[in-house]
Design a protein that fits this description.
The protein has about 400 residues and is an alpha/beta fold. The chain has 13 helices and 13 strands. Helix 7 links the parallel strand 5 and strand 6. The longest helix is centred in the last third of the chain and has 24 residues.
């Protein structure tokens, strides 16, 4: 037999999804994989029930149903101020995961280099490698997760063709300031590079922080490729509705890549989701209030239990420091905690290129009852660690 792909030989399975399987095995509270346990907006699911009877049930236009793209364009212009042509500047994809992959395959050649802030969502490194490129990691330094502009320039100077920017950031909850984004923009323009943004948490922001769209900065409209999805904003992670917004010459290439990757997103789901894209501003204010409440409940609970963590500015994740337990292997610790404490988290080292093993990531997009149950179980963590025998994660 011929050998398998060298490009994917070092891949592991998704650590996030692996922790969900471990959570299910031990009947733990799953705070690892970031999906809510509350229902999507009723208006959307009611519309889906109608669509189930009426259709459409066949292929939509490959790059997305016309009414869906038009609704996306209106919403994006409303919040960013950028007018988008729904026909030449949007491609609808099967989730933001495909949006990122299709974008990378459209702009990257084998042998190129791609800059990635670390910590990073685990797909970014894999997408870079699948594109045949070499990742260059720029550390975001805890606890504020700031970056050294000189290191970023060094990455561009060494040939980085693009930067992947997650804002607000998964896993650390950082919201990049306007000044930080201006620094990035200045370097991208200077070195003629792209910025591929992941903005799926654009509406999950905690005061006083504000989301600034990279494409709104001077000179960045034509070199920013926006990847986004409806998953987080409308609590429909299983619908897999994502999209790419970029200039026409880029979108023309993304359309072709997308066509051969997945053909198209699900027609009935696009039809139902148009309702959500037309929601008034009040919905997004309620969404922010809802997540602010969940953050205060869970993060406040961690503080009351005496745990150390970094305060999230956006998204719905919190990194907790477990160095007090002498953790050397955070993978084994995360599985031990899932089995013995009954709460599942993601080992932080799966997000870092650097040698970081003292963090775990929780997400808090859950009902109050779920979060309270998780906190009740975490209240036993210190005692169970002290009483544990034959620990293999120290």
């Amino acid at each position: 037999m011929y050998e398998l792909s060298k490009r994917t030989s070092n891949f592991s399975d998704s650590v996030i999804r692996r922790m969900t399987r471990i959570a299910n095995k031990y009947d733990a509270v799953n705070l690892s994989q970031g999906f809510p346990d509350f229902a999507p907006p009723k208006e959307i699911t009611d519309r889906l029930a109608e669509v189930a009877k009426m259709g459409p049930h066949q292929y939509a236009i490959t790059w997305g149903a016309q009414n869906f793209r038009e609704a996306l364009a209106r919403k994006h212009e409303h919040f960013s101020g950028i007018k988008v042509d729904p026909d030449s500047e949007i491609v609808v994809t099967c989730g933001s995961t495909e949006a990122m992959m299709a974008s990378m395959m459209s702009i990257i050649n084998p042998g190129d280099k791609v800059a990635i802030f670390s910590p990073f969502y685990e797909n970014y490194g894999a997408d870079t490698i699948l594109s045949g490129a070499e990742p260059i990691y720029i550390p975001l330094v805890p606890p504020d997760f700031n970056f050294d502009v000189n290191l970023l320039e060094e990455a561009f100077r060494s040939g980085a063709k693009a930067l992947i920017l997650c804002n607000p950031s998964n896993p650390c909850g950082k919201v990049f300031t306007r000044k930080e984004l201006e620094n990035i923009a200045e370097l991208a323009i200077k070195y003629d590079a792209y910025v591929v943004t992941d903005e799926v948490y654009e509406h999950i922001i905690y005061e006083p922080h504000k989301h600034v769209y990279m494409a709104t900065l001077p000179g960045m409209r034509e070199r920013t490729i926006i990847c986004n999805s409806l998953s987080k904003t409308y609590s429909i992670t299983g619908w897999r509705l994502g999209y790419v917004i970029a200039s026409p010459n880029i979108i023309d290439r993304v359309k072709k890549v997308h066509d051969f990757l997945t053909v198209g997103a699900a027609a009935p789901l696009m039809e139902a989701a148009v309702v959500g894209l037309n929601f008034p501003d009040a919905y997004y204010k309620e969404l922010q209030d809802h997540y602010t409440h969940m953050k205060k409940l869970f993060v406040g609970g961690l503080a009351n239990l005496g745990f150390q963590f970094t305060e999230p500015q956006g998204a719905y994740y919190v990194l907790m420091d477990v160095s007090e337990f002498g953790v050397k292997d955070d993978y084994k610790f995360a599985e031990w905690m899932t089995a013995n404490v009954g709460v599942a988290a993601v080992p932080g080292s799966s997000f870092f290129h650097e040698d970081v093993h003292n963090l775990i990531r929780f997400h808090f997009a859950k009902e109050d009852a779920t979060l309270n149950e998780a906190l009740t179980r975490l209240e036993t963590l210190k005692k169970k660690v002290n009483n544990a025998q034959n620990i293999d994660w120290r």
